């Protein structure tokens, strides 16, 4: 009986992993506040609404505060995207979710670190569930 339960649990966990998708990379390099991109670079305010076109991105509403964790360095002719998370009591379900958004959608209002590190992006930077 215990083996059956353990087997079912393992199958369930593997099934969840199978739904994960690696999306196309948006850039080859990014700027962060540290080598792990765990420090917040800046705080920004959304100038306009942005609706996420896929799971790599986050939805942003005009006026929301956004913590910026990294800034992608675009290839020539590509859009400029930053990664961050929304901060808003009205959208508690989005807090802590990190995703990309166009840099033109926000205005930086406060810088938390002057130290910047350029590091390569990895496939995990564009991983979706």
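^ Assign residues to that structure.
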């Amino acid at each position: 009986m215990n083996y059956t339960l353990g087997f079912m649990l393992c199958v369930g966990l593997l099934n969840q992993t199978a739904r994960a998708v690696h999306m196309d990379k948006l850039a080859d390099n990014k700027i962060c506040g540290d080598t792990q991109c765990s420090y917040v670079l800046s705080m920004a305010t959304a100038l306009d609404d942005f609706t996420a076109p896929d799971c790599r991105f986050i939805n942003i509403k005009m006026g929301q505060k956004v913590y910026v964790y990294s800034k992608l360095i675009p290839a020539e002719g590509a859009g400029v995207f930053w990664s961050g998370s929304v901060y808003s009591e009205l959208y508690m379900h989005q807090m802590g979710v990190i995703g990309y958004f166009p840099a033109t959608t926000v205005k930086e209002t406060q810088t938390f670190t002057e130290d910047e590190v350029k590091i390569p992006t990895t496939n995990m930077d564009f991983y979706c569930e």
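Strands lie at 21-22, 29-32, 42-46, 65-73, 81-87, 98-102, 106-111, 117-120, 127-128.
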